[in-house]
Each structure stands twice: as structure tokens, then as C-alpha cells.
Amino acid sequence: MGRVDDDPLTLAISPPPDETPEQREERLKEEAKARKISDDIDEEIKAAKNTQKKKPNVKVLLLGQSESGKSTTLKNFQLAYSQAAWEAELLSWRTVIQWNLLRNVHTIIDLLTDALENERASSDEEDSSSENDGEATSGPPASPTRRRTPLIFNEKHRLLKLQLLPLRQVQKDLEGRLGASSSEPTGQEEKLAKKHGQETFVRSSIWKASLLPGRRNSEAAVGLPKRNREAEVLQTNEILAGLAQTIKSLWDDEAVQEMLRRRKVRMDTLPGFFIADVMRITKRDYVPTNEDVVRARLRTLGVQEYHIHFDTGPAAGMDWVLYDVGGSRTQRAAWTPYFDDCDAIIFLAPISCFDEKLVEDRRMNRLEDSYALWREICSSKLLAKSQIILFLNKCDLLEKKLRLGIQVKDYVPSFGKRKNDAQTVSQYFAQHFKEISKQCSPQPRPFRVHLTSVIDTRATAVTLHAVEDGILEMHLRSIDLM
Ligand SMILES: Nc1nc2c(ncn2[C@@H]2O[C@H](COP(=O)(O)OP(=O)(O)OP(=O)(O)O)[C@@H](O)[C@H]2O)c(=O)[nH]1
Ligand SMILES: [Mg+2]
């Protein structure tokens, strides 16, 4: 091994042996200058790297059909990573929950009205001796068009209807506060509501700020001075507290429950189901719980941007931008401009919907619509480099349906004679999504899937941590490549 002095580089840059003191001083000055330039360059590179790492926020899009659980997933992000903001906004959800409750009430009242009218029509034609004592009857499901429907309602029900009449106006007021707009229907409730001329489409972008006490007026405040608004809120709370017991009587009524069973309306599986909690949520000092907020239903219109700042964990110090979009067909054209530059898509497919039809197109099976949408997203060239994470959502409802004996093969013939249990069914659906991803992706991409029930905030927090790690890893890798 040679001595350091023999090293050609050392020899080349070492001072000449006959250097004078002036030359030495000059040389040292030059060396200091060069060192400064080199240090400055190093600093610039470091700063550039830092800004590169900070500048492009992680950009995530939540996609999927309407009612697939996109906004609910967003709420889970906020709950897990922006706790302070989440808690500050809890109270604003009270209005949405009250509105959801009133929609439950009016779904029942509309069915009841229908049944009562039907009763009158049939009793006109029937022998008056056929009227019973108003007790609920058992037997085949009642159909509104079928004659000789056994009568199951009495004066009590007409009185309940009358007592709850003021709630129509309260619902309208709440819609005004939330920013009611179009009349695009969703599901059974909306169909009925539409029939009765109710507004059912609520804009979710602008309502929050105006509903928090002490917040400044915003677009959603619909022109009401703050004091009037607060008075209106108090009045709503009072009316609801005053009618809570009547709403409970309606819900607990055996004939009403029998009517729902016969008409195959499973209220507890409808989005925004709160009537069973009426006594709790109409208390004057009610503050929504986390679970109430994730169960609250408010449709998204357009594309809404949310910023999440990570304080802890592997993404600490970073800002993520999440885009929550409206999922119904008319809303989907607005998604594409957001594909550019997108790090990851969280795609939600509600797998409990295998036996349901799209509200906006009653010929289209909801699972088929999810497959078609997934195909489009996977094949998008703009998204070729984006990570796509699939949430097969509403697994809790899938289990409920299968327990009720609903057969997947009746709606998905290719499912054949496989076991009709949640595990087999979800794996079967997952496999189908996987194949589409493999066939349609412009370049190979890993298939990442999670079975979720995003109303379960604890389980979802665990899923989100896994998602966070995956997205972050890919984001940092893409920065390294820049
Ligand atoms: N039981 C159950 N309900 C869920 C689940 N995920 C979402 N929901 C409920 O389904 C309803 C619709 O969820 P959203 O998150 O509002 O749906 P979305 O995809 O944002 O719908 P749009 O805004 O219309 O595109 C809400 O009332 C949720 O509480 C789930 O996994 N299980
Ligand atoms: Mg939404």
C-alpha cells in the first residue's frame, strides 16, 4: 500500500515546494474562495431537495359511485389525523343529523300516508264488515295496489301524523341552512320525497362554516343575519325536543314496523339512519359523537378539497391534499381535471350493493356500475403512474344481507354454487376487480385491496395507517426520481 504522499492527486494539488509567502497567501485566498463557492452550491442543492420534498403535497383522490363511502372515508382521515379540527367541527354536524332524522320520519310518514290512502280506497270498495280493529295483521306483503288489504292502522296513526306535521317545515328550514339545491333523487326516501315535492339534494361544500357558533357568515348562511340564524337553530332544537317522544312512538309502533317489513323497507340499512336514536339526538345539549358523524349522510356536489397536516407518524410534517368528489353519474365528468399529478386514488366500491340498482339509472346494477367505473379508472393513461387502492366497502351490510338469506347467485349468476358467506363473496368480488386491474392498466401496477366498513372508525384507522405508509413510500420514491 503506497504512502499518502505518493498519491498523484495529493501531489497535484499540494503547494509547489518553492512557494513564496506572497504566493502562499494568494493560494490560500483562492482556495477559500473555491471552498465558499462549493459550500454555496451544496447549500443550494440541499435547499432544492428540501423544497422538492415539501413542495409537491401528497395528492389523493377519493373516487367511487354515489353512496360508496368516499366522504365517510374522508371523515376517517380527519378523525385520525386532524383531531383538533375534527372536534371543533363536531357541533356543526348536529344540523345534518337532525335533517337525516327528519328524512327518516318523513319516509315513514309518506309510507303511512300511502297505506292510509290505500286503506280508504279499499274500504270504499270492500264490505264494511271487513274492517278490523286496527291491529297489525300478519300475512303476505301488502301492496299499495292490491285490493282487500287488511287494515292495520287506527286513529292513533292519524293523530301521530297530525302531531308531526310541523316537522315538514323544520326539514325545509334545515335544507335552507344546509344549502338545498337540485332534486336528483337517491333511493327510496328520495323517490317518495320527490313524489311529495320535497327538496332532497344538499350541497355539502359550504354549510359547515355557517353552522358553527361564532363562525362568520358564509355563502351557506343564505342571507340570514347571525342573530336570526341562532334563533332559528334554537327553535329547531326546541321543536325536535318537544316532538321527540311522538317520533319515538311512531318508530316503536308495531303496525308501523309491520308496514315497513311488508314493504321491505329496511330503514336501518339506509344512509343517515338516526330515528332509533331519536331521544338521544334531540336532547337540548346534544353534541354528535364521532360515530354519529361518520353515520351522517350529506351528498357531495362537485369536487371538494381538504388539507390534512400530519403531526406524527411517517408522514409527520407533510401536508396531504385530499379530493372528495360527488359520485353520481352527472358528477363524474368533473373528476378528470384532478387526475393530473395525482399520487394515489382510493377507490370505494360498496360490495353490499350487489342486489341494488343505481338511483340515476334503474336498469344498472350497482356492482356492475362499480366494475365499469373501476375499469375506466384503471385504464386511464393520466393515472398510469398513480397508485390505486381499492376499498371493498360496506362489508358490515354485506354480512347483514347474507345473514338474511339473500343469495348472491340470484343477482350475480357467475357466482354459481359457491358458499354464500361474506368471506367467499368478498373474495370472489375482489378477484373480479383484480382481473380488471390486470387487464386494463396501461402498465403493470400492484393490486392493493382492503375489506372495509368505514363507519367503523377504529378498524378504518388501522387501514388508513397502512394506506398512508404505501402512499408515502411511493410519493418519496417519485421525488427521488425527479
Ligand atoms: N353500514 C355502513 N354504512 C356506510 C359505510 N360506508 C358509508 N356508509 C354510509 O353510507 C352513506 C353514504 O356514504 P358517503 O360517504 O356519504 O358516500 P359518498 O361516496 O361520499 O356519496 P356521494 O357524496 O353521493 O358521492 C353514509 O350515511 C355513510 O354513513 C359502511 O361501510 N357501512
Ligand atoms: Mg360524498
UniProtKB/TrEMBL annotation:
Gene Ontology BP, a term: adenylate cyclase-modulating G protein-coupled receptor signaling pathway
Per UniProt, where does GTP bind? 393-396
Q: Which UniProt keywords apply?
A: GTP-binding, Magnesium, Metal-binding, Nucleotide-binding, Transducer
Disordered: where is this region?
Answer: 1-35, 120-148
Composition-biased stretches, type Basic and acidic residues, lie in: 21-35
- Report the Pfam families cross-referenced here: G-alpha
Report if keyword Repeat is assigned.
Answer: no
Any stretches that span the bilayer, and where are they?
none
Q: Which residues bind Mg(2+) per the record?
A: 300
Q: Name one GO molecular function term.
A: G-protein beta/gamma-subunit complex binding
Report which superkingdom the organism of origin falls in: Eukaryota
> Bias category Acidic residues: which stretches?
124-134
Under InterPro entries, the record lists: Gprotein_alpha_su, GproteinA_insert, P-loop_NTPase
Give the CC-aspect GO terms.
Answer: cytoplasm; heterotrimeric G-protein complex
Which SMART domains would you find in this protein's record?
G_alpha
What is this protein's name?
A: G-alpha-domain-containing protein
